[in-house]
Amino acid sequence: MDRINPYKLKISQLRALVAVADHNNFSEAALHLDLSQSAISHAIANLEDELGVLLLSRGRHGAHPTPVGERVIAQSRQVLQLLEGIIKEANREKGLHGGQVRIAAFRSVATHILPSVIARFRRQFPAIMVAITEFDDFTGVEQSLRESHADIGFTYLPSGEEFETWELLRDDYVALLPPNSGFRNPKITWEQLAAYPLIVPATNSCSLRIRNHLRTAEYPLKIAYEVREDSTIVSMVTQNLGAAILPRLAAEPLPPGIQVCSLPIPLQRIIGTAVLTNALHTPAVYAFLDALKNLGRFSTKAVV
Question: Residues 212-219: contacts with CB within 8 Å, 24+ apart?
Fold first, then answer.
């Protein structure tokens, strides 16, 4: 038996074979590939000669794969898909020599998460510009994504169905007690927390979340201050103006003297990254998402 030289097989022959299999007809396959019918027939005939087997049975009702033809067609599809992958990788690399990634984030993520990600990303792709827009709350982030003002957003999960999301981290809400509290326990009770004027964030989602959580308290708690800036809240606690409830990430870095305690009933926010579903993203955007995932913080499972 003569040995078949695989390097004599041509991509054009595989494309013709797959097209005929898809359309069950030489003439329609020719129209699909923008070639003449004779060119299609010639390509497949040469392929069959090279392989020494009949791949298609021709008849009055069109062309249909033989049993061996079915197997060869399946592998031909794989070859063509691999070639498309090669082209995508090349185009992606060409697209990574410039461009921009637009990021929307609320402040605690922009302060504590993004700098290390961007530093890693810029070492690998120094020509890509990264633009960050900060928002007080995740609602501004999601609106920026919807209006195509941002490519990647950092938001709370779960989010709307229009986004594809990945979990980044889980951030516990904590109680911050002033330096004069003398409190040294890692967890505070509702009764102990009720002894302080409370300082909470003024952003709608965070304030609402905390207020709803405080309804589970066994003692009435008084919110004395609602403050927009996280850093201002921490400064007020430092000045012994009250105790605060904040996400741990938003509270950092903490000045000396402030005591951090777990809440009597745990409260968490799930922070994730989001992109608009079915949006056309540039290679630079995909590269930045890879940089986030490679940090080891990401779970690739979408939160539902």
Answer: 213/173, 213/263, 213/265, 213/267, 216/265, 217/190, 217/193, 217/264, 218/190, 218/191, 219/190, 219/191, 219/193, 219/194
The model's pLDDT over 211-220, given as tens digits with 9 standing for 90+, comes to: 899 988 888 8
Q: Could you tell me which CATH number the domain at 100-169+270-293 has?
A: 3.40.190.10
Per-residue pLDDT tens digits for 144-172:
999 999 999 999 999 988 999 999 999 99
* Residue intervals in the chain for CATH 3.40.190.10: 100-169+270-293, 171-269
User: 3-state SS string over the chain?
Assistant: CCCCCHHHCCHHHHHHHHHHHHHCCHHHHHHHHCCCHHHHHHHHHHHHHHHCCCCEEEECCEEEECHHHHHHHHHHHHHHHHHHHHHHHHHHHHHCCCCEEEEEEEHHHHHHCHHHHHHHHHHHCCCCEEEEEEECCHHHHHHHHHCCCCCEEEEEECCCCCEEEEEEEEEEEEEEECHHHCCCCCECCHHHHCCCCEEEECCHHHHHHHHHHHCCCCCCCCEEEEECCHHHHHHHHHCCCCEEEEEHHHHCCCCCCCEEEECCCCCEEEEEEEEECCCCCCHHHHHHHHHHHCCCCCECCCCC
The CATH H-level (homologous superfamily) assignment of domain 171-269 is: Periplasmic binding protein-like II (3.40.190.10)
**Rounded CA gap, 242 and 176, in Å?**
9
